Amino acid sequence: MAEIRIGRMVLGSYATNCYLLYREEDPRVIVVDPADQGEQIYKKLTEKGFQVEAIFLTHGHFDHIWGAKALKEISGAKIYALAEEVPLLESAKLNVSQWAGRACVLTPDVLLSDGEEVTVAGMSCKVLATPGHTAGSCCYYFPAGELCVCGDTIFQESVGRTDFPTGSASALVNSIREKIFTLPDGVQLFPGHGDSTTVEHEKQYNPYC
Fold it and tell me: pTM higher than 0.90, yes or no?
C-alpha cells in the first residue's frame, strides 16, 4: 500500500491547521478540519489534481468548521464527526460561532464512535474519543502512517483550553493520558494549531500531563 502523506493549510484569523491526507499516486484526499474558505480549499486542491473524498472533524468549534459546509456542497464529500459532538455542531452558541460574529451550524453525515476503524480513500484510521476540549472531541490515528491528527486536544508542550461549553480540564488530561500517551512513542501528533510533535516528546515535556 502506498505511503500516507499529510499536508497542511493554515487558515483563518485563528491560524487553524487544516490537514490533507492522501497516498502517493492517488488523487483522493481526506480533509481534516476545513477551518475557513471552503471554496478556496476546494480550488487549491483541484488545481493540484486532488479529489476531496471525505471531510473529518476533530471537534465542532467555529474555527475548525467554518469552511466545512461550502467544501461539502462543492465537492459532494461527506462530513464525519464523533456522535457526541452533534449537540455542539448544531448550536451556534455551544460552538462559539455566534460569539465569533459568524454563526455556523452543521449536521454530520457520518457519526463515529470511540475505537471505530474507518477506511476512506484506501487509508485506515482508528477513531479516538478524547473529550475535554469539547465533549465530542476526537483524534484520528493512522497506524500505517504513524500519525495522529489530534485537533485541539493536545499541542506542542500544551493542551487545548477547557473554558468553552462542554469543556472539562480533568476529562482532557484523562483523554491525553489514556488515548494519546498509549500510542507508540514515535507517532507524530498533528494539532489544530501550531507545529507537529511526537508522543514521546509530549510524554517528557508537556507540563499539563
Answer: yes
